[in-house]
Specification:
Blueprint (H helix, E strand, L loop, with lengths): L5 H5 L1 H18 L2 E3 L10 E3 L11 H22 L2 H14 L1 H16 L8 E4 L2 E4 L1
Antiparallel strand pairs: 1-2, 3-4
Helix pairs in contact: 4-5
InterPro entries: Glutathione_synthase, Glutathione_synthase_N_euk
Protein name: Glutathione synthetase
Organism: Macaca nemestrina
């Protein structure tokens, strides 16, 4: 179903209010970036850039994206399971970025302890996982 954005785009006051609400939502949802003025501080952040309206994508490009999606997913999965590759690739980032370093520490801890997260199909109790 096509949407006609013309009337909204012509109402500057309504458009400004929509943009303000979108920024507030982005901040509330954690769509954040550190600022260039304080690149090492997690206390000073701004919202990440986003578009307010959908963008047209040529169908040929969309088909190309669909065509490589499965291979890309397999690549991401393989990389996520190669701890040595991840550590080597992220080593310089880990040294400079506290957030990435903390994420990688969590990754190493999970590798060490194993995945202990319960899914919706199990009941995690003190006795361990039980199928529901």
């Amino acid at each position: 179903m096509a949407t006609n954005w013309g009337s909204l785009l012509q109402n500057e006051q309504q458009l400004e209010e929509l943009a303000r609400q979108a920024v507030d939502r982005a901040l509330a949802e954690g769509v954040l970036l550190r600022t260039s003025q304080e690149p090492t501080s997690s206390e000073v952040v701004s919202y990440a850039p986003f578009t307010l309206f959908p963008s047209l994508v040529p169908s040929a490009l969309l088909e190309q994206a669909y065509a490589v999606q499965m291979d890309f997913n397999l690549l991401v999965d393989a990389v996520s399971q190669n701890a040595a590759f991840l550590e080597q690739t992220l080593s310089s980032t880990i040294k400079q970025d506290d957030f990435t370093a903390r994420l990688f520490d969590i990754h190493k801890q999970v590798l060490k302890e194993g995945i202990a997260q319960c899914s919706g199909a199990t009941d995690c109790s003190r006795e361990g996982k039980k199928h529901i």
